[in-house]
Specification:
The chain is mostly helical.
C-alpha cells in the first residue's frame, strides 16, 4: 500500500494514468476489434523509448549553464544524487506528458499514410494504452528497485541490475522494465557478472562523475531543497560524498 500511495501521489502520475483511462475507454467505445492488436506494439516501442531517453537525454554531459543543469538535475541527476528520495523516483510531468504527446503525434502521422480512417485509434492503442501502461509499469518497477520491501523474483532481478547502474557503473544497464535488459545487451550497455567483479567502482558515481562539491551541483541542490525536502544536513552530506 505504501508503494501505491507513493506512486499515485506523485505529480506526474495522475495525468499519465488519466491518459491510459481515456485511451482504454476510447478503444472500447469506438475502435474496431483489430485495433486492439496495436496495443501490443506499444510495449516494445515504449521500452525502446525509455532506454533512448534515459541513455541519451537523462545522461547528457553536465551543462555549463546553471538553468540547463537545474533542468537535467530535476529530470535525472538529482535521482542519482539522492537515490532514496521518493520525490525523485519518477520522471517529472514536464518530461512525461510532452513525450506522450510527441509519441502520439508521430504514430498518428505514420498511421495517417497507411490507414487514415483509423489513424487516431491506432495512435491511441499504441501510445495511450500500450505505451502508457508500459511506462507506468516502468515507474512501478523503478520505484520498487529503490525501496526496501518484499520483492518477487522479477523485482529482485530488476533491482539487481538497476543497483549496478546506480552504484557500480552509471554507463551500464539503462533499462528498468522487466525484459528491458535485452535492449541493453543489443545496445552494448550490459555488463556481465565476471566483468563487473573485475571493474573498479566509478569515482563519484552518485554524482555521475562530477565532484560532489561541483558548484553546479551545490546550486541545483539548493534550488530544489524545499521541493524535494532536502535538509541542510542532506545538502552537506551530498557535497562531501
Amino acid at each position: 500500500m505504501q508503494r501505491l500511495f507513493t506512486i499515485v501521489t506523485h505529480h506526474s502520475i495522475p495525468p499519465i494514468l488519466l491518459a491510459l483511462i481515456v485511451g482504454f475507454v476510447s478503444l472500447v467505445l469506438w475502435a474496431p476489434w483489430w485495433i486492439w492488436g496495436f496495443v501490443l506494439l506499444g510495449v516494445p516501442a515504449q521500452m525502446l523509448n525509455e532506454y533512448t531517453l534515459h541513455r541519451f537525454v537523462f545522461h547528457l554531459a553536465p551543462p555549463q549553464k546553471q538553468w540547463a543543469f537545474n533542468l537535467l538535475y530535476e529530470a535525472h541527476y538529482g535521482h542519482h544524487d539522492f537515490p532514496t528520495n521518493t520525490k525523485l523516483f519518477f520522471a517529472p510531468v514536464w518530461v512525461s506528458v510532452p513525450m506522450m504527446v510527441i509519441n502520439f503525434a508521430i504514430v498518428w502521422a505514420v498511421a495517417s499514410f497507411v490507414v487514415p480512417a483509423h489513424a487516431v485509434m491506432i495512435a491511441t492503442a499504441v501510445v495511450l494504452v500500450g505505451g502508457v501502461a508500459t511506462f507506468l509499469g516502468y515507474e512501478w518497477f523503478h520505484m520498487t528497485a529503490h525501496v526496501n520491501c518484499s520483492k518477487s523474483w522479477l523485482a529482485r532481478h530488476v533491482t539487481k541490475l538497476h543497483n549496478q547502474h546506480h552504484f557500480r557503473d552509471f554507463s551500464k544497464w539503462f533499462h528498468v522494465s522487466p525484459g528491458g535488459h535485452v535492449i541493453d545487451r543489443v545496445m552494448g550497455t550490459a555488463i556481465d557478472t565476471n566483468a563487473l567483479k573485475q571493474q573498479q567502482r566509478i569515482e563519484f558515481i552518485r554524482t555521475l562523475g562530477l565532484r560532489p562539491d561541483d558548484p553546479r551541483l551545490v546550486a541545483a541542490r539548493q534550488h530544489y531543497a524545499d521541493r524535494f525536502d532536502l535538509s541542510e544536513k542532506d545538502l552537506q552530506q551530498a557535497a562531501r560524498a
